[in-house]
Amino acid sequence: MSNDPLVPPARPSVSALLLGRPSVRGRWAPAMRAGLAFLIPALILLACDARSNAVLAALGSFAVLFGERRPYRIRWKTISTAGVLLILVVAVFGLLGHWVGPDASVPRELVSVAALGALAAVGVFVVNALRLGPPGPFFLVLAGGVAVLVGRAGLSVGLLVIYTAAGAVASLVVSIAPALWRPRGPETAITEAALAEIEQFLADNREPSRRHGVAASTLTAWSVLHDASQTDSELAHRLWRSHNQVHDAASDEFIAPLPRPGIGYRLRSAARLDSHPAVTAMRATIAALLAGGISVVAGLGRPDWAILGAVLVLQMGPDRVRGAVRGAQRVVGTFIGLAIFAVLHALDLHTVALIIVLAVLNVMIELTVTTNYALAVTFITPLALLMGAPDRPLLEQMGSRAAETVLGVGLAVAMASLMFARIHRRTLRAADDAARTACVEVLQTAADQVPSTPTMRARRRDLQWQLLESELAATDSANDEPAWARDYWPRHAAVRAVGYDTLSACWRAGPDTLVRGEALAELSSRVSATDG
């Protein structure tokens, strides 16, 4: 990365992205929870005579993935919400599968494709607008696709809901259980990571290229401390002292910064056609609909598989370089996963053995899903196929799944490159304008309000949020169109610099002292210079 703040970062190395080794540090505990969230309900369902359908508990066990890195005080709400959404999805798409039927007409199959596309559209937009991060909406779309398949095979929706609910309840239990012996574990780990980021930033003499990482990790830590109701803890005081060091502040009065903006604010901020969440949702939806539609017309048998290929590549809105790499990882991972599926299919495992294998696959998915898509997809593929494999010859299944994967991935990469090919320019300009506007609001309010008033605290928080959004858009532009980014970068750098300097001025003033008039005038002049 360049140390010159007026020069955009270099494109990431394709080989490094492709061949990066996944780190499992700190991942074993959540991975074991993911395995147990499926294993326990599946074995109970098997004992209750669910037979091979017991593996469908995996649909609800996906809820455990949404609770990691969240304090226990809200983790139960997050997992419960994810569980309810998974249950609703399998109920709706299970009914849709019954309506489509085993020998469906092309129009009815296209209706199921449209429904999955709509699910992907809403999920991708909301996840990106709220910046929820992994695992994203992929597992909701996966649950919907499997529900359509088993619904077409004749499984009652009531039983499908029961199996999914069993997995969701188990997810809640195993994810909350560690609170008994390490009740402050999540917020401690996240805050310590933010403290380490700040320490490195200070050791590097406030290297501008690290400023975004410090801001992102610090906001995450404060948000998590608020979620955990630990804003007056020793951990919070340590973070506050380090935050003061970042801004060269010397205040002795502790007031914890506000957490991330509310859900309404985040959704409204993203409600523009050129926003990153909106563009990502449009690309993912069009790719999903085209992939699913072509799969239906070509008679490949699993349009949901083609849709999943597109969604997995595009769901988090990667730039073109990362999108192409993720697509390659999806293809390679799927092919290896198909080989694993073939071996398991040939072994014709007893249901107990199959449940154990699926639990192991859940563990491996959680270990790799945030660090190496190729490995994660290697384990997702046999898991998804074993939950809903149609009664067709093995080689035919493998050939169709391979074709659908290539189809979905190819369309996803094409959408990232060709659909709104230069939209990143508008996205970055709009993000910089939003950050600039937020900066103006802080400076105007600071003229007669001290930094600790509710209005000032909210506007400082919103400025921080917009600066992070701007930096994400800038990174995408630097990777998508380096030549244009180099020409535009001085303006972005100026907006970024004056935004962070405005935040620093508020910190240095202290909570109950007005920002100096000379500082406000100088910052206002710099903001005006970034207009246009």
UniProtKB/TrEMBL annotation:
InterPro entries: Memb_transporter_dom
Topology versus the membrane: Multi-pass membrane protein
Keyword Transmembrane helix: yes
Alphabetical UniProt keywords: Membrane, Transmembrane, Transmembrane helix
Subcellular location(s) per record: Membrane
All copies of domain Integral membrane bound transporter, residue ranges: 290-414
Main localization, broad class: membrane
Spans through the membrane: 78-99, 111-130, 137-155, 161-181, 281-301, 335-361, 373-390, 402-421
Keyword Transferase: no
Protein name in the entry: FUSC family protein
Organism listed in the record: Gordonia hydrophobica
